[in-house]
Design a protein that fits this description.
The protein is of the alpha+beta class. It has two domains: 102 residues; 138 residues, 3-Layer(aba) Sandwich (Aminopeptidase). The radius of gyration is 19 Å and the shape is globular.
Length: 263
């Protein structure tokens, strides 16, 4: 497979523009908002493409080719700087092909996509306040770097830079005197869609902090006329419940391939 230079990314817009599975990931990379990469089967063949961004990846195109799928998976298995991946097959034709070429350690898992409803969000909005010693603040470039250095190293690979995030993304954190204990930010941005990622430090869970940072994030999206988006693994019941508490409604399930390095 061949890595596609960024100047050719616009050529792939038609390939991913009409698909929904993995659209946020592909769109963010093609928009140049990430450190992601794009691969094609041949330098002048844009009928299929593999989009990679910090462990999240998408196989795009209506014609599934076993050789290309196998090359993409092998690249993921051999990647020296990641210990997981979540692969979105953008077209159902990729599923039997991936089933054939994936290793036994690669799992088929259902994810659930949600749609935001502002009326439901407003009706369900919590009136509770943060506990004493906790404060809610927007996440700027400086705070993003602090998050990367302390509680969430993975965040450093989700944007080209913290400065780039501050210009194009949205984020909020809950702070204590000891640092960041909860956060919600735009993990993928494509057009007006901002995909949500949330983390709460384990000892601070159960205090409503995830709902607080996510509510602030959604408020800011609504204020700017942007669309918050949410999807999660079907078995991630806390994420499912939180999405519903924030006015999101489950719309459909879709299959992804998940792999975790064990050695």
């Amino acid at each position: 497979m061949f890595e596609l230079p960024a100047e050719h990314y616009p050529s792939l817009t038609p390939l991913f523009g009409s698909q929904h599975i993995g659209a946020e990931v592909a769109g963010a990379v093609l928009a140049g908002n990430t450190q992601g990469k794009v691969f094609v089967s041949a330098p002048d063949d844009f009928r299929t493409a593999f989009v990679y961004d910090n462990g999240f990846c998408v196989l795009g195109g209506p014609v599934a080719t076993p050789a290309f799928a196998k090359s993409c998976l092998q690249w993921l298995y051999d990647h020296p700087h990641q210990d997981f991946f979540i692969l979105y097959p953008s077209h159902e034709g990729w599923v039997p092909v991936l089933d054939t070429v994936a290793t036994s350690s690669t799992k088929r898992i259902q994810r659930v996509a949600f749609e935001f409803n502002k009326e439901s969000f407003d009706a369900r909005r919590s009136k509770s306040s943060l506990a004493s010693g906790l404060s809610l603040t927007p996440m700027d470039a400086t705070l993003m770097r602090k998050v990367e250095a302390t509680v969430y190293p993975w965040i450093g690979g989700t944007w080209k830079s913290a400065t780039d995030f501050e210009k194009r993304g949205i984020g909020f954190c809950v702070l204590t005197e000891g640092g960041v204990v909860s956060l919600c930010y735009s993990v993928f941005v494509s057009g007006g869609c901002h995909a949500i990622d949330i983390l709460t430090v384990e000892k601070f869970r159960g205090l409503g902090l995830a709902e607080a940072v996510a509510s602030a994030f959604i408020d800011e999206c609504v204020h700017r006329g942007l669309q918050p988006t949410w999807d999660c693994f079907e078995q991630n019941l806390p994420s499912m419940r939180l999405a519903q508490a924030l006015g999101f409604k489950a719309t459909h399930k879709f299959l992804v391939y998940s792999w975790q390095r064990t050695t």
